[in-house]
Amino acid sequence: MKKIGILVGSRHQESINRKIAQSFVQIGHPDLSFSFIDISALPLFSEDLEQNLPQSVTEFCESIRANDLILIMTPEYNRAIPGVLKNALDWASRPYGKGALSGKEAAIAGVSLGGAGTAAAQVQLRALLPSLGMVQVRHPEMCLVWKPTLLNENRLPTDENTTLFFKKFLDALAK
Ligand SMILES: Cc1cc2nc3c(=O)[nH]c(=O)nc-3n(C[C@H](O)[C@H](O)[C@H](O)COP(=O)(O)O)c2cc1C
User: Fold this and answer.
1) For ligand 1, is residue 98 a contact (CB within 6 Å)?
2) Ligand 1 centre from 9 Cα, in Å?
3) Is 12 near ligand 1, meaning CB less than 6 Å away?
4) Would the pLDDT of 138 be above 90?
5) pTM for this structure?
6) What confidence tens digit (pLDDT) does each residue in 37-75 have?
7) What is the pLDDT at residue 139?
8) pLDDT in tens, 94-105
9) Does the Cβ of 147 fall within 6 Å of ligand 1?
10) Domain limits at 115?
């Protein structure tokens, strides 16, 4: 069983990226197990805090290390990844070359209100992965445009094409 840690780059209570991730979990896959990695308690990164790491940072890094693949769900803020996501990645990149993300597989997906469905944020995020020491799953790309009707009350897609697309994405994580 491959362990997938889902890191949602949002502190939004009603995060649409979290909802899509919950849909992946609802659909499920026989070879994958899922857990969510919480970023909400992380302080803003400072090298000064590294002398005595806050417990929230230690727990965050442990929850990354417990997984085989980290699925990063990125919102898009002003054509870039949100600061809270960059902050989380900076914490997990330390110490340089030996951070929790180093050597982990990374997959990226995102959903936004804009028509490009986080494509700009994802390009930026993919460019960061080599410096984090992450190996990326490249296909299929998952850039989604949010509509309230995309998922039903059980977080399952309301149309067959979206279901098939989500399953194809999960198959790629399992490889
Ligand atoms: C500061 C800010 C900037 C945003 N910039 C973009 C953007 O560049 N492209 C886009 O598609 N949506 C943009 N949005 C809308 C987001 O897609 C929307 O807020 C979405 O719900 C964020 O994802 P989340 O709910 O998972 O946090 C922006 C929203 C905020 C608050």
Assistant:
1) no
2) 11
3) yes
4) no
5) 0.98
6) 999 999 999 999 999 999 999 999 999 999 999 999 999
7) 87
8) 999 899 999 999
9) no
10) 2-174
Q: Which residues pair with 73 in a beta bridge?
A: 8, 109
Structure tokens at 87: 């902050």
Domain containing residue 40: CATH number: 3.40.50.360
Q: Which numbered atom of ligand 1 lies nearest the CA of 14?
A: 25
Residue 66 CA, ligand 1 centroid: distance in Å: 30
b/e 68-84 (16+ beta carbons within 10 angstroms → b): ebbbbbbbbbeeebbeb
Q: What is the mean pLDDT of the chain?
A: 97
Structure tokens at 18: 């979290």
Cβ(124) to ligand 1 under 6 A? no
Q: Is 9 in the pocket of ligand 1 (CB under 6 A)?
A: no
Ligand 1 atom closest to Cα of residue 78: 8
C-beta of 151 in contact with ligand 1 (< 6 A):
no
CA 34 to each of CA 66, 82, 103, 165: distance values in angstroms, whole numbers, following the listed order? 11, 23, 19, 18
Q: Give the contacts of 131 (CB within 8 A, at least 6 positions apart).
A: 93
Asked if residue 126 has pLDDT above 90, the reply is yes
